[in-house]
Specification:
The complex is a heterodimer of chains A (about 300) and B (about 425). Chain A has eleven helices and 14 strands. The longest helix of chain A is centred in the middle third of the chain and has 16 residues. In chain A, helix 3 runs parallel beside helix 5 and helix 8 packs across helix 11. In chain A, a hairpin with a 2-residue loop joins strand 4 and strand 5. With about 300 residues, chain A is of the alpha/beta class. Chain B is built from 16 helices and five strands. The chains are: A alpha/beta (about 300), B alpha/beta (about 425). The interface between A and B is medium-sized, with 27 and 13 residues.
């Protein structure tokens, strides 16, 4: 949905290009993310996600194109104040306590005095770490560290929040806690950019999703729109196969589908079409291990568009 | 066999890890060779001409033929650098010979570790076998921060008197025999005079040819010497300020290097990215770390000198202004050095290797590990390019020579200027952590 005319986009990326040597990491990306949106950015490893994110936070200087955050050039003091970044890494001081970490990162964001104390209290409460405020980070569990990592990035209550795979390596219980934290941010009106390798997270937390591959946005829209765009009213048939004498990708492409190393993904209008596929596979010497028919989801879309499993 | 394979795998993994960290890999081999070379320079001497020579200011109050012969003998002595007048300068292109007062002032000022005063009357009574009242008493004025110099000058004086003045010695011996024993027969007298004539000719030839005498006389103590400490005579522990500064600066350098290394830790953890994406610029970040590192260094030095006061009776509290100035300047320079090392190296392993090599080298050359009086002039000159040397020089002025703060101008200037230059270099190298 386009933003109201009087309201600036939370993030405006225009024709962004960044090359490392002769390799384009980001190749002409344009994005407009309205205020209040929850935007998922998906892509296989090496697709250009990290370079795009680091460009948005001002850590990578693009070769061309522009990025504006609430109308401010990226890297400007106003843009920095409006942007909160939670990196993949646990970017914390391990010997400092939770409170001391929050104090340090709050000061780096220009907070002080009562505002800083209130922000620390809000962070500890938001991350459910109030009872561990005095514990050194190195004594925390993986999930607690992840939550503190998020809190440290958002202590200045930015309007645009960039969460880069915030649930990597955490247990299901902690993941749920992180989902609740993100949903609380959404409810408070923050604009969220969320990258993940977990499709269910994107489906739960994001209302708009972009898929990036080879440095380009290859699909953009709501989950329903992406599914409809890729599969229409068709269902998705996933066939896991053993070694066969033929080229799987070519076999799948001939039937309007795609293939990974050991799976074929083909869209069908009716379940009865599965029998036709099985006959053809048998005729061509393919060893079928199992067959599943499902309504297409984001995972199917991702596989269909990139030819790769999201978590591969 | 399985255990052997495991051992081989462990070794291979360790070797591959070391090889991948190219800086640490190279330093593993460069470090010992570098150190060996430095120790060779300091103690071995690359050439015999680098052998340490003791500088001694010579004041000839007698100005007789005998005393002049002695001065020439001292000037020929290879282990001494005997100087009779200051070097010409723009202000004083033709300086006068040292007097007792100017020589003493020069020793107090640290220009030379010792001065030798040849007393008036030395020519008349070069040595005395009889009463002590007739003996010409030499004076050595020395700075006991160099405990070797006075002993070397004293020994070389005895040797030079013996070897440079053979005729004089024989003549005095003859006179002693005449007065104390009862004299010689005319025939003995004639033979004695012939022998003395030959000795005089030999003495004159030697002095004219400028040949150096070598060998042991077996006769020591012909001249009477009064050795006086003119700098730290009343101080309770003469060298403690030297070692407090020397050892302190060496460990300060290690601490500063480690403190600077926090940049590498933050870079590895991603905290640096997070900090720089906030409102902190690289210059602010580096400046903050520089100030912290300098304060840490000041605390360390203060503790070191307090310990020296408590345990070794260093007179700290009557030198507070000079101590504070030197501590602040030294800490600033050392902190900037640590920042530069951290910004140049890429891993903690590289930082450890490079900093160890540079710090121990600077400490060896700058006087932190070995007293400067053990070093050759060439090595002393090289040592002037180290923090250690300037810091030791400044602290020595404060605690040993009791000089005022204005006398610390060279040390303050060098340390502050080095600190500024090193910090600017660190900032330049730190560009790699900014946007790519």
């Amino acid at each position: 949905m386009p933003p109201p005319l009087d309201q600036p986009a939370a993030l405006l990326v225009a024709s962004l290009v960044k090359r490392f040597g002769s390799t384009p990491a980001v190749d002409g990306v344009s994005l407009t993310i309205p205020q209040g949106a929850s935007f998922g950015l998906l892509g296989p490893n090496g697709a250009g996600k990290s370079t795009l994110i680091r460009s948005i936070v001002g850590r990578v200087r693009p070769d061309s194109g522009s990025i504006r955050i609430f109308r401010h050039d990226v890297g400007s003091p106003a843009a920095r104040a409006d942007l909160g970044w939670v990196p993949q890494e646990l970017a914390l001081y391990p010997l400092l306590t939770c409170r001391e970490n929050l104090h340090a990162f709050g000061r780096y964001q220009g907070l002080r005095g009562k505002l800083l104390n209130e922000a620390i209290a809000w962070c500890l409460d938001w991350a459910a770490l109030a009872d561990r405020a005095g514990s050194p980070v190195r004594t925390l569990s993986g999930g607690m560290k992840r939550r503190l990592n998020m809190a440290a990035g958002l202590i200045h209550r930015p309007r645009l929040v960039l969460l880069d795979e915030p649930t990597v390596g955490v247990d299901p219980q902690s993941r749920n806690r992180i989902f609740e934290m993100v949903e609380a941010l959404r409810a408070a009106g923050a604009t969220i950019i969320y990258t993940t390798h977990y499709m269910e997270e994107a489906e739960r937390l994001c209302d708009t999703i972009a898929i990036i591959d080879h440095g380009q946005i290859i699909a953009l829209g709501s989950k329903e729109a992406l599914v409809a765009q890729a599969f229409g009213s068709r269902s998705s048939v996933t066939m896991h196969v053993g070694r066969g004498p033929i080229d799987l990708a070519a076999w799948a492409a001939a039937r309007g589908g795609s293939a990974t190393e050991n799976a074929l993904l083909i869209a069908v209008e009716k379940p009865a079409e599965i029998a036709v596929l099985l006959d053809a596979a048998s005729r061509d010497g393919l060893e079928i291990l199992d067959v599943a028919l499902q309504r297409p989801n984001l995972e199917s879309v991702f596989l269909h568009l990139t030819g790769k499993e999201l978590r591969a | 066999m399985t255990t052997l394979r495991l051992l081989l795998t462990i070794m291979h993994t360790s070797f591959t890890s070391l090889r991948r960290d190219r800086g640490a890999f190279i330093m593993s081999f460069v470090l010992p060779i570098g150190f060996f070379t430095i120790f060779g320079f300091v103690f071995g001497g690359m050439r015999s001409s680098d052998t340490p020579r003791v500088t001694v200011l010579v004041v000839d109050q007698d100005d007789s033929a005998v005393s002049q012969a002695l001065v020439r003998g001292l000037e020929r002595e290879p282990s001494l650098d005997a100087i009779t007048r200051p070097k010409p300068s723009k202000e004083d292109p033709a300086p006068a010979d040292y007097t007792r007062n100017t020589a003493e002032a020069a020793v107090r000022n640290g220009d030379a570790p010792a001065a030798l005063i040849i007393p008036q009357g030395f020519g008349a009574h070069p040595i005395a076998f009889g009463s002590a009242a007739q003996q010409a008493k030499f004076t050595i004025l020395h700075d006991s921060s160099d405990p070797v110099a006075a002993q070397v000058v004293s020994g070389m004086l005895q040797k030079t008197v013996m070897m440079s003045l053979p005729a004089t010695l024989a003549s005095v011996g003859s006179q002693y025999f005449d007065t104390e024993i009862g004299g010689l027969t005319p025939q003995q007298r004639q033979q004695m005079d012939q022998g003395l004539a030959q000795l005089r000719k030999l003495q004159d030839d030697q002095n004219a040819a400028g040949k150096s005498q070598t060998g042991s006389s077996g006769l020591a103590g012909f001249v009477s010497i009064d050795i006086r400490d003119v700098v730290g005579g009343r101080k309770r522990n003469p060298m403690i300020a030297y070692y407090a500064a020397g050892v302190g600066v060496m460990f300060l350098l290690f601490t500063a290097s480690a403190a600077g290394g926090s940049l590498l830790d933050e870079s590895d953890s991603g905290a640096l990215d997070r900090i720089l994406s906030a409102r902190v610029t690289m210059t602010t970040l580096l400046a903050g770390k520089l100030i912290w590192s300098a304060l840490l260094a000041m605390a360390q030095l203060t503790l070191m000198f307090l310990w020296a006061w408590a345990i070794f009776h260093l007179d700290l509290f009557s030198h507070i202004p000079g101590f504070l100035v030197m501590t602040a300047c030294t800490s600033f320079a050392v902190a900037a050095f640590g920042m530069l090392l951290a910004s140049v190296t890429k891993t903690r392993g590289q930082l450890a290797a490079v900093s160890t090599l540079i710090i121990l080298t600077m400490s060896a050359l700058g006087g932190s590990m070995f007293p400067k009086f053990l070093m050759s002039n060439a090595m002393l000159m090289v040592g002037r390019f180290t923090f250690n040397s300037w810091a030791i020089s400044g602290y020595t002025k404060v605690f040993w020579r009791d000089e005022p703060i204005r006398a610390l101008g060279p040390e303050i200037s060098v340390l502050l200027a080095s600190g500024i230059v090193l910090f600017l270099l660190a900032r330049w190298f730190a560009r790699r952590w900014e946007t790519v």
